[in-house]
Amino acid sequence: MATANPYDLDPETNALLKIDTFQGKFTTRDFVENMSKNLLKHANPKAFDPKPFIRTFERSIDELLKLRETVTEQSKDLEATVQLTEAGHRKKLHELKTTFEDVVHSFENLESRINEVGNTAIRIGEQLETIDRQRHRASESKDLIEYFMAFNKGDISRLDDLRTQGTEGQFKASIIARKLNTIAKEVDIPGGEDAGARIEKYCEILEKELLDQFDKAYRQKDKQTMHNCAKILQEFNGCESCVKLYVNQHEFFITKVNLSQSNEFLTSSSWNDLPNPQVPPPPVDQGLVNLYQEIRTTVKQEAQIINVVFPDPVGVMQVFLQRIFAQLIQTYLESLLSHAESNSTLAYLRSLVAAHTATKELVEDLKGLDMRQKGLSDTSYSDANEESQNSGTIAEILEQCIRDLFVPYTEGDRYIEKEKKSLGELYSSLLLQFTAYYTQQKQLRAGSLLGRAFNQIYSNTNLMDVQTTEDDGNLSVNYAMLILKIHAEAIGRAVKLSPFTELPKFAGVLFYVLLEYIGKQYIETALDTCLDQISVMDPKSELHFKSFSVIKVAGDIIHLAQNHFQSAILPLASPSLTMHRDLTSDKNRFMMGVENKINSTVQKMIDAIISRLNYLLSRQKKVDFRPRDEDDVIASLATAPCNNCVECLKKVHASISQCLDGKNMEHVLTEIGNSFHSMLLEHFKKFSVSPAGGLVLTKDIAKYQETITIFKVPKLDERFEMLRQLGNLFIVKPEILKSVLNEGYLAKVDIKYILPYLQARTDFKSTGIDTLLGATIETGTGERNFNEKAKARLAAMGLNISLGGDYLWS
């Protein structure tokens, strides 16, 4: 037995060094662990000996090198085999390609030959069809000639025999009779007149017989017989006589033909609301609603019958619908609108638009009719294409019907002229009391041109006989809103009844009507009258402030009209750039004119208030500021002119604050306050003021100042505070007068402007005020002498203050 070599690997390790170990999933870590597994079992855990591991790995490396050489040799052999196989494969592919090209070429040749044979067959088929048609035509011609000759001889038995052979025989007989009738009219042969007369008579008998059968079947509701008769008559004469018979004897037309004569709509509860512009448009006439509902029901029922009976159901439905619109709807509509127009133009327009809306809804409902077009042959079409064509045909018919129905009322300018007439009637009625009031006022003042113009406008009404009150002359926002509401309703009708291309034009027409009434005859009349009334105001009489309320209401109405223009009129004019530009320009011109009149009214009112205040101040007595009894001075609160001015100012403020707001109110109050302040400055120069009178004067000023504070205008508060300080000059002792002049607002005023007020003091000379001030009255320089030390102190602080000026107050 051979001795085992200690360097030989154990069987388990040898098994790991096979080619199978390296195939599939392989990791170096697992390989090394498996190699070392047996060695670790025999290793001494206390003293590690690396030699067994070294010998094992060295021997394994040798074995792996041998294995690699073996694998390398096998790879080379396989590569050589693959190369040989690929060469054979490429050769085989080339051979297959060549073979495929030959097959394709053969197939193309075969296809070409088949096409040639097919074309030849087609030509032969066409020739056979032509020959067959010619043969059939020749056969038909031969039969027609034989039938014609038989009729020429008076023999109709052959055609009668064919006619009695059931439905198919009748169908063929009707076709032959139609062709014979055509031939008789076109062919001119000896004796042909007799044959033509006999053929025509036979056609009449045949048609009458078919119509009688159709009528009998109609009464018995035999749809199949009706269909057979209609089919035969379709070939015979286009089925016109059959359609007329069907439509004319329809029960719906017989029972509804006299509907309009009953005038059922006159009993409707909403009829009385039609001419009332303050009531919303009532619903559609109930009689018309009922009629349209019956039409919907009847048409849907008849559509089913027509689809079954007639070969051309769309054509029959067209005749049926046209008859409904022309006979029933038009008759009822004419009667309805005639009665409405006899009531009022507004009632007519409301009825017209309601009927138009209801008719549009009816048309939209009827557009969904399912009419199955059969045609004259058995050729069938796709359902989608058929349905689309028929729906389009029915829709076109209905659209034409509704156009024809309303053309007499909307063609050209007929409709818009009715709207203009309606607006004129309604606005004239609404503004009758208002116009009568101002006309009477003008007539009372020498019969002005405006009054005569109003009488011309309202020629049918004697405005001087109309009973009016003061309230009738007031502008009213509620009236204006009603005017705009009426106009908005007219705009809504125009949108529904006007062609789209004419809508900008019609919107412009309606806008100019609104501008005429709400602008010229309403707002401008009130403003013009205010201007006239203000112009004749007497400052000696008590002021009335109606003009301010007119201005306020006019402003509110203008604002409403502007919103109405932007929301209702301008969008309709947008498609036409020219109309859009013209309407905007005319609206702006109107607005500017009204604003100018409002401004003129405000300015004239301010002038009237100032004149009134000036008059009240002119009532000041010379002795008011030189009282004899000092006890009366202490007991008195203010002079009578002061009380009157204060009362007037309070009324002015109350009226303005109610009618104006924001910057407008502030501007008016500021102008009145400034003017009154200037008047007071001039006023106090005119009177001599005693020491006791100075108290009276300061009480007046204090009351003026207290009244001005309710204006809540800071600039006016400053002015009247300066006036109060100026009033103190009349009550301070002479020795402290100089210090008073150097304080507050007076320090900013040149002494030459204050001097006239100081001179009004009765003690001006007696107490040496002129000497104390250092003023030289004779020279009139009025220059103020200042404390040089004070001026030097101000200069040291960097302040260069000029205390002179060319004005008293700014």
Automatic annotation (TrEMBL):
Coiled coil, from the record: none
Q: Which GO terms describe its cellular component?
A: exocyst
GO BP term (any one): exocytosis
Give a yes or no for keyword Transport in this entry.
Answer: yes
Xref: InterPro entries:
Sec10-like (IPR009976), Sec10_HB (IPR048627), Sec10_N (IPR048625)
Q: Which UniProt keywords apply?
A: Coiled coil, Exocytosis, Transport
A Pfam short name: Sec10_N
Specify the domain of life of the species encoding this protein.
Answer: Eukaryota
Domain annotation Exocyst complex component Sec10-like alpha-helical bundle: ranges: 173-770
Q: Where is the Exocyst complex component Sec10 N-terminal domain?
A: 50-164
**What family is it from?**
Belongs to the SEC10 family.
The protein, known as:
Exocyst complex component Sec10
Native organism = Gigaspora margarita
